[in-house]
Design a protein that fits this description.
By secondary structure, the chain is mainly alpha-helical. The protein has four helices and no strands. It is elongated.
């Protein structure tokens, strides 16, 4: 299952807090650190990881051109790009999974519906009287 993207996480944050992301970021700057700040930080890290993946993937594609001569210098750049892509993918996966789990735990819960008024209870019918045992001996 693919992880949510930074745009999907941003939308979920906006839905949870009921305001545009830019307004939430401005609000978070004026407040002590809290859940909103943490979510915005995760979303920002996720955005950065996605940008890093794209940047290094494009750089790698430029380095690995068919029929291009490969030397030691080019190999070191290819290895560096591959390492950076792997790191960015790991960061993206962790940030997406964590942000998604936090948002799921914070999801808005619908207000509980008022319970219907309890039905009036009918008093139980009195139990039939049991005749008292006589103290006299029977013959």
């Amino acid at each position: 299952m693919p992880h949510p993207t930074s745009a999907e996480i941003a939308t979920r944050i906006q839905d949870l807090y009921g305001a545009p992301l830019a307004d939430l970021q401005a609000h978070a700057r004026d407040q002590p650190p809290g859940m909103l700040s943490a979510l915005l930080g995760m979303q920002n890290d996720l955005t950065y990881a996605e940008q890093s993946i794209t940047l290094h993937r494009d750089r790698l594609a430029r380095l690995v051109v068919p029929e291009q001569r490969f030397g030691g210098h080019e190999v070191s750049h290819v290895l560096d790009c591959a390492r950076r892509i792997a790191e960015a993918v790991a960061v993206r996966d962790v940030q997406a999974k964590t942000a998604s789990a936090v948002l799921q735990s914070l999801g808005r819960v619908a207000a509980p519906e008022p319970s219907p008024a309890p039905a009036p209870t009918v008093p139980a019918a009195p139990a039939p009287a049991v005749p008292a045992a006589s103290a006299a001996r029977s013959r």
